């Protein structure tokens, strides 16, 4: 494990020149390494097997045995790096076999380029830099973005940037170039964003006299292209952002695009089409490969605030076409976001007020996750630091080591631009001229909890602001020092005044932060010193980079660093699943909890009691010995005590003034949130000075919006229920008991590592009549609850409640334990109850009823994929006559009640199949993905829905 070493300064020998290369480069002194000792020799290594299976059928979709990793790396990180970042064809001598090869491949490229382009004073300085970089990567202190691991040091083009911004003009040639450029970016494993506001609206005229197609029509082609490249086996799914200005005449149609498509998805699903994630029929749905955002101006937001109208303007002439009620358009945005989470919002004037290069051009768009905002036809190389590595056992934050780590990382990122390849010459030229970087961090949520601070608290926000200010301050100070060694960025001279103005704004924002304790005060004082020093050096040298920092979602690379939380996000839940080296997984309580309890002053016995309580309940409410005033420390993004939406917004507002770019983060809202709640979040984002904001309302992707259609369905369902109740009232409930001897089966199962047994008994003349469930130890709370559930279900079945009603109500119910199962027909379950009723449906319901609610066996799903009739899949034959003979029905059984109302399509429309968890299942391994910014990332295999 890492050992503490002296903190040594990293300095420059020359800091005078403002243009052209310097005569001498940087000198580098050791901070983390020891002279004469290679970083690899300081750790223990071990051989591991990586075997990953397909969740649909249990087949192996990746296997590499005998890979070499440090013993302190988790199995999860091992799997992700091996399956995603090892280069070379499997089974060939060229295939990488251990972490050493991966790190050496990347670090060697940086080492060589740094020497070649004059970044270091001597060869010895370059070697020290390489050693330090190796140590930081080996010990998971930081990680480059995924394209670096994919491409650097290989025969492939050296694309190092994860984020791209493109441009589109109002010509067919430009639009076709946009399609091509996006495709090349997706092929390299990255994402791109574009603003379509220059394209004429559908109401405007062409030179030929006809009406223009409008930007939305061209979005269809780009979306189809992205979907094709994604499905063609690219390294990751395509990711893209589409932006439209709020004064564009087609803005209302743009706002509605994805909400309308969600209606289509529901209709297709209810008609029996496969619209699951990656489903073959999903390709008929449009606009699903992009995040959409509306770019709003201060003029528009003030009109919303005052209740006035604003102008929609022609694209060619800028003339006013018509006026719209600002509040009506704002409500429409919130309504669409309520229905499907799109569009997000970007605040144009705030973005451009913090822009260092306005004399070159404005900022029009962002990357797919909204953290990178810069010039059109540009790119950004990302890297993220693991904040937990700098937290001391006493709750202190190691400012010195953090400062040195930032210096090394920002230097490496700058070097990468000197050897990087780019998908187009335009992008390459802009990036080399402005040299945009995006240093950021992960594990903020874990850091705050471990430190005993609530995420939604003034203390937590102050520490986050101080750390962010220090990170960006050091980055720009280092950038100014590098400018002294190799010159400022080419576009600096024409933007010197606005660049210095923005640097002064950052420094002034640091002066305005209020601190609440020794830790945040110490970090903030260091940050202020860095800004003062950096601005002093920059006034002489200029800066090497137009942009230095962003907060990216850090999906895959967070798992590579074994981070508990991604980016700026809080913890998702207090209990998680940990993969084991030998296979399988176990449920563990987050390690942040015992450390937080220690920090809050609880003794060993109380800590253990609280941890045991969390392990059983998944939350801290009612935990023994835990004081209620400490509950907020353990609030998470989801669960019993979810962080309030404005808690997310306020955290973003606390760190935004200390970032060159913006923040990739989704503000989570409960399913019960209203359109007005979303309006308030969007409005407060503007008031608090954010650059961009995205929301997600729990289950909004599949929840039926409040509409006349839903009201009709609800009314029809209500009438059907009333009819059924009246029928039962007339006949009276009659219980039909099972005979003394009845056919039954016992199944052992495992859900998320929790094991149990289910015995189900049926009437000899068909039909389930009894269920027994066994989990946990005799006398435990869980065992008692399962016994009570078994009795209640059994009695209800014997009184005639149809099994399909239970299946509709209980499938997709979410609570722990949840996750992978050992059942080949049900690979994933959102809870034990979800698994039980899926299994009962498969065993006791006919194919037609199961198909209507989407519960099929593996064989039936395979038949569907092969174009065969799943209804004809052979089932084991049962000798009913023999069963009847073995258990004759008692003569005294009362007449069975006939319920006249069978489940209808109306029931199916509101069944459990019409609901699902908010996060999708991973297409590769079936693990439930977790939010990472405005995207999703898989902890099981590292796959993402588009994040870097």
Question: Could you walk me through the main structural features you see in this protein, from its secondary elements to its overall organization?
Answer:
The chain is α/β, with parallel strands linked by helices and 948 residues long. Among the domains are: 704-733 and 897-914, no CATH class; 734-896, no CATH class. Helices cover 40% and strands 15% of the residues. The strands form 8 sheets. Strands 5, 6, 7, 8, 9, 12, 13, 14, 17 and 18 form a 10-stranded mixed sheet that branches. Helix 11 (399-419) crosses helix 14 (458-486). The longest helix is centred in the middle third of the chain and has 29 residues, at 458-486. The model is unreliable at 1-22, 231-236, 702-717, 724-730 and 886-917 (pLDDT under 50). One of its GO terms (biological process) is DNA biosynthetic process.
């Amino acid at each position: 494990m890492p050992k503490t070493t002296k903190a040594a300064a990293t300095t420059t020998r020359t800091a005078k020149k403002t243009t052209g290369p310097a005569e001498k480069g940087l000198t580098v002194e050791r901070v983390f390494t020891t002279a004469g000792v290679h970083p690899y020799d300081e750790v223990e290594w071990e051989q591991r097997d990586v075997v990953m299976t397909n969740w649909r059928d249990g087949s192996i979709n990746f296997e590499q045995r005998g890979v070499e990793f440090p013993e302190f790396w988790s199995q999860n990180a091992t799997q992700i790096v091996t399956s995603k970042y090892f280069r070379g064809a499997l089974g060939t001598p060229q295939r990488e076999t251990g972490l050493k090869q991966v790190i050496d491949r990347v670090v060697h490229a940086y080492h060589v380029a740094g020497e070649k382009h004059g970044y270091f004073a001597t060869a010895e300085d370059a070697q020290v830099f390489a050693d330090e970089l190796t140590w930081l990567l080996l010990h998971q202190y930081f990680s480059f973005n995924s394209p670096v691991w994919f491409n650097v040091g290989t025969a492939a083009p050296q694309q190092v940037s994860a984020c791209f911004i493109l441009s589109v003009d109002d010509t067919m040639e430009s639009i076709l170039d946009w399609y091509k450029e996006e495709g090349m970016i997706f092929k390299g494993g990255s994402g791109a964003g574009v603003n379509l506001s220059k394209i004429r609206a559908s109401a405007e005229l062409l030179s030929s006299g006809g009406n223009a197609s409008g930007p939305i029509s061209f979005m269809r082609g780009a979306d189809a292209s992205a979907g094709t490249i994604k499905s063609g086996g690219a390294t990751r799914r395509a990711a893209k952002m589409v932006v439209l200005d709020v004064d564009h005449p087609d803005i209302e149609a743009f706002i509605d695009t994805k909400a309308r498509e969600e209606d289509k998805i529901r209709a297709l699903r209810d008609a029996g089409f496969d619209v699951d994630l990656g489903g073959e029929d999903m390709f008929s749905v449009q606009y699903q490969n992009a995040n959409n955002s509306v770019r709003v101006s201060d003029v528009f937001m003030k009109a919303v605030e005052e209740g006035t109208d604003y102008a929609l303007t022609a694209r060619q002439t800028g003339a006013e076409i018509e006026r719209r009620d600002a509040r009506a358009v704002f409500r429409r945005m919130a309504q669409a976001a309520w229905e499907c989470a799109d569009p997000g919002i970007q605040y144009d004037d705030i973005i451009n007020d913090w822009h260092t290069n306005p004399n070159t051009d404005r900022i029009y768009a962002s990357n797919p996750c909204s953290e990178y905002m810069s010039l059109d036809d540009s790119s950004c190389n990302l890297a993220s630091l693991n904040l937990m590595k700098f937290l001391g056992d006493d709750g202190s934050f190691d400012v010195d080591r953090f400062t040195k780590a930032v210096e090394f990382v920002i230097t490496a990122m700058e070097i990468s631009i000197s050897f990087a390849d780019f998908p187009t010459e335009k992008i390459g030229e802009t990036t080399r001229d402005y040299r945009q970087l995006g240093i950021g961090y992960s594990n903020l949520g874990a850091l705050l909890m471990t430190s005993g601070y609530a995420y939604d608290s003034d203390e937590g926000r102050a520490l986050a602001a101080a750390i962010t200010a220090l990170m960006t301050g050091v980055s720009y100070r280092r950038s100014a020092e590098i400018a002294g060694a190799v010159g400022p960025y080419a576009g600096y001279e024409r933007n010197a005044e606005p660049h210095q103005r923005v640097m002064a704004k950052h420094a002034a924002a640091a002066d305005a932060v209020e601190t609440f304790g020794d830790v945040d005060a110490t970090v903030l004082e260091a940050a202020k010193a860095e800004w003062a020093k950096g601005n002093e050096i920059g006034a002489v040298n200029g800066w090497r980079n137009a942009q230095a920092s962003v907060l990216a979602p850090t999906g895959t690379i967070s798992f590579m660093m074994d981070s508990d939380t991604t980016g700026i996000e809080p913890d998702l839940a207090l209990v998680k699943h940990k993969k084991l080296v030998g296979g399988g997984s176990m449920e563990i309580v987050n390690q942040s909890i015992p450390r937080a309890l220690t920090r809050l002053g609880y003794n060993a016995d109380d800590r253990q009691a609280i941890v045991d309580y969390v392990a059983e309940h998944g939350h801290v409410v009612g935990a023994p010995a835990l004081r209620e005033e400490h509950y907020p420390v353990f609030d998470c993004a989801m669960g019993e005590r979810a962080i309030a939406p404005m808690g997310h917004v306020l955290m973003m507002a606390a760190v935004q003034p200390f970032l060159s770019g913006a923040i990739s983060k989704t503000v989570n809202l409960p399913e019960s949130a209203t359109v007005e709640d979303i309006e308030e979040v969007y409005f407060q984002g503007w008031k608090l000075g954010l650059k961009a904001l995205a929301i997600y309302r729990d289950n909004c992707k599949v929840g039926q919006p409040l509409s006349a259609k839903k009201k009709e369905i609800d009314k029809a369902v209500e009438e059907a229920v009333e009819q059924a109740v009246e029928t039962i009232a007339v006949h009276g409930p009659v219980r039909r008991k099972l005979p003394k001897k009845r056919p039954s089966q016992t199944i052992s199962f495992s859900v998320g590592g929790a094991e149990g047994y289910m015995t189900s008994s049926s009437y000899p003349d068909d039909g389930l009549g009894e269920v027994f469930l066994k989990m946990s130890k005799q006398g435990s709370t869980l065992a008692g609850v399962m016994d009570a559930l078994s009795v209640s279900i059994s009695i209800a079945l014997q009184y005639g409640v149809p099994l399909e009603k239970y299946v509709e109500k209980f499938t997709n119910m979410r609570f722990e334990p949840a996750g992978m199962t050992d059942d080949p027909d049900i690979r994933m379950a959102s809870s034990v109850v979800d698994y039980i009723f899926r299994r009962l449906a498969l065993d006791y319901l006919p194919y037609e009823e199961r198909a209507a609610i989407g519960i099929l066996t593996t064989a039936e799903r395979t038949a569907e994929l092969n174009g065969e009739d799943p209804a004809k899949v052979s089932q084991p034959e049962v000798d009913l006559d023999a069963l009847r003979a073995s258990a004759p029905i008692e003569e005294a059984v009362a007449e069975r009640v006939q319920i006249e109302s069978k489940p209808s399509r109306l029931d199916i429309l509101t069944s459990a199949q019409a609901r699902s968890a908010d996060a999708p299942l991973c297409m590769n391994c079936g693990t439930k993905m977790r939010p990472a910014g405005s995207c999703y990332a898989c902890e099981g295999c590292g796959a993402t829905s588009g994040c870097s």
